[in-house]
């Protein structure tokens, strides 16, 4: 049975209500937010994340609620249902640019975390398990999500065994940097992808193994979330955010 | 609803060179190593099954919407295929060593595909180029050469589900993973053990096999095992 609810850690739940963008506070520096789906309904779309592209549902894995991108029903150029409402919830009056850009990216399923409005520095990690995907098996951390739909992602792809930083600007995806190490991972096993951002410094790790040490052309600021590609079937869990000062 | 049994499946497989051989041969038959008498009650599928319908949709050639008939015809000839293909086309069951000899024209076409694969910017023969049957011919032919198969798998994945038959992509990926010393992920590859019984080649995460197989328009794992006669002795 696939269902969900991402719960922000109790200590932060009051600070980060999961509703309209206007109600989301800035993240508390140095405090870690562990996002849990424990109270969400299995088989439903997550409430803690806004699924903008792709079919995202909460599902059970070993009795625990996790977030599942279900690539079995992926179709090229098809955003998630209710995109306009979700974009309005995230970006208010600025949602139209966001929608236009996201439609161009419908090749790449994304779900934006509602609990943090603006992430600039710190660490983000997520556990993921590849379930399948004939074309791709991609699990990524989404960050620097702008109101116009531009964003960055660091992702692992099990069809390529690599970790790559991609940028998406004005509907165009561009390769930025590929970690040198190839890491074949078994399907059906859990792994951790982590990034840290301090100013223009971006580092990434896969299961604590260093992947990227890269200097971005500019600092980042924007929403965050999880990312995938085409028909990937990936389970995500334990999305964790620690905002830090630069 | 008409229910077909494995005897029908086996007949369909015998009629089609549906699966590429592991040792560089195109097989014209899949030797299901299970007595027909046992199959009727065990291995069933229906035309209305989702995986069958998805294959039927992909291989529907009622509209002539491909661009290169001469290449298509050459591919079909080299693979020993005749369009339209009988549905389902791909059962995702390949028993190592059960492959038959490819047509004589296959080698030349494999060379042509190698040239195509190594030419930057070349148009790979996808569905919109050679039709659905043509893409299945490509799948069969690239299986004759491991190096070509790796490039072809990449091209097929890049082309996407509208251009490449997902079940063929999955079956080819399984085979290449095994050749690379990794475990298969769809459960399409079988071999004979020392006792002559058919067994599933090493596989990872069999718990989610049916999710993956559904995504790839392959029959349920249980049916695949049944069709391969896994655990059964020689006929």
On the 0 to 100 scale, the average pLDDT of chain A is 85
The helix count of chain B comes to: 10
Helix percentage of chain A: under 10%
CA radius of gyration of chain B is: 17 Å
Shape of chain B: globular
Number of E-state strands of chain A: 16
| Poorly predicted runs of chain A | 1-22
Instruction: Report the largest inter-chain contact.
Output: A-B, 18 and 20 residues
In spatial order, strands of the major sheet of chain B run: 3-4-5
Could you tell me the radius of gyration of chain A in angstroms? 16 Å
Please provide a brief summary of the model.
The complex is a heterodimer of chains A (246) and B (235). Chain A has helices at 10-13, 83-91, 95-104, and strands at 3-7, 33-42, 49-53, 56-61, 64-70, 110-113, 122-132, 138-145, 151-157, 162-169, 172-178, 190-198, 201-206, 209-215, 223-227, 233-243.
Describe the structure.
The complex is a heterodimer of chains A (246) and B (235). Chain A has 246 residues and is mostly beta strands. In chain A, 9% of the residues lie in helices and 47% in strands. Chain A has helices at residues 10-13, 83-91, 95-104, and strands at residues 3-7, 33-42, 49-53, 56-61, 64-70, 110-113, 122-132, 138-145, 151-157, 162-169, 172-178, 190-198, 201-206, 209-215, 223-227, 233-243. In chain A, strands 1, 2, 4, 5, 7, 12, 13, 14 and 16 form a 9-stranded antiparallel beta sheet that branches. Chain A starts with a strand and ends with a strand. Chain B has 235 residues and is mainly alpha-helical. Chain B is built from 10 helices and 5 strands; from the N terminus they run βααβααβααααββαα. In chain B, α4 crosses α5 (106-118) and α5 packs across α7 (146-159). The longest helix of chain B is centred in the middle third of the chain and has 16 residues, at 127-142. The two termini of chain B are 31 Å apart. The A-B interface holds A 71-72, 76, 131-136, 159, 184, 186-189, 230-231, 233 and B 157, 160-162, 166, 169-170, 173, 182-183, 185, 204-205, 207-208, 211-212, 214-216.
């Amino acid at each position: 049975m696939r269902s969900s609810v991402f719960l922000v850690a109790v200590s932060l739940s009051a600070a980060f209500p999961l509703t309209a963008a206007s109600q989301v506070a800035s993240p508390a520096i140095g405090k870690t937010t562990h996002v849990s789906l424990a109270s969400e309904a299995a088989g439903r779309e997550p409430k803690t994340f806004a699924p903008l592209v792709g079919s995202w549902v909460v599902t059970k894995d070993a009795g625990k609620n996790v977030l599942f991108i279900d690539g079995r029903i992926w179709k090229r150029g098809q955003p998630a249902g209710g995109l306009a409402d979700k974009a309005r919830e995230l970006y208010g009056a600025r949602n139209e640019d966001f929608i236009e850009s996201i439609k161009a990216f419908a090749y790449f399923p994304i779900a934006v975390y509602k609990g943090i409005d603006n992430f600039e520095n710190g660490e983000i990690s997520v556990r993921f398990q590849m379930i399948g995907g004939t074309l791709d098996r991609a699990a990524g951390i989404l960050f620097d999500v702008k109101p116009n739909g531009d964003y960055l992602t660091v992702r692992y792809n099990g069809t390529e065994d690599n970790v790559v930083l991609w940028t998406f600007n004005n509907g165009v995806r561009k390769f930025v940097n590929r970690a040198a190490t190839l890491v074949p991972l078994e399907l059906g096993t859990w792994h951790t992808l982590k990034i840290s951002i301090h100013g223009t410094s971006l580092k990434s790790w896969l299961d604590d193994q260093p992947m990227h040490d890269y200097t971005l052309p500019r600092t980042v600021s924007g929403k965050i979330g999880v990312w995938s590609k085409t028909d990937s079937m990936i389970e995500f869990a334990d999305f964790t955010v620690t905002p830090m000062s630069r | 609803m008409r229910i077909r049994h494995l005897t029908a499946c086996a007949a369909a497989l015998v009629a089609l060179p549906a699966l590429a051989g592991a040792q560089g041969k195109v097989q014209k038959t899949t030797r299901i190593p299970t007595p027909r008498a046992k199959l009727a009650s065990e291995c069933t599928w229906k035309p209305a099954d989702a995986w069958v319908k998805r294959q039927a949709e992909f291989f529907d050639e009622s509209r002539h919407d491909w661009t290169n008939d001469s290449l298509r015809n050459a591919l079909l000839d080299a693979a020993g295929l005749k369009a339209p293909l009988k549905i389902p086309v791909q059962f995702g069951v390949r028993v190592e060593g059960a492959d038959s000899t490819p047509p004589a024209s296959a080698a030349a076409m494999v060379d042509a595909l190698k040239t195509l694969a190594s030419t930057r910017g070349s148009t790979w023969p996808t569905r919109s180029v050679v039709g659905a049957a043509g893409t299945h011919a490509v799948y069969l032919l690239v299986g004759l050469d491991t190096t070509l198969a790796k490039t072809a798998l990449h091209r097929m994945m890049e082309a996407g589900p509208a251009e490449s038959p997902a079940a063929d992509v999955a079956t080819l990926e399984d085979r290449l993973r095994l050749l690379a010393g990794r475990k298969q992920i769809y459960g399409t590859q079988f071999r004979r053990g020392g006792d002559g019984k058919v067994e599933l080649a090493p596989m990872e995460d069999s718990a989610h096999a049916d999710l993956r197989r559904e995504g790839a328009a392959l029959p349920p794992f249980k049916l695949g095992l049944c069709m391969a006669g896994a655990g059964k002795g020689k006929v």
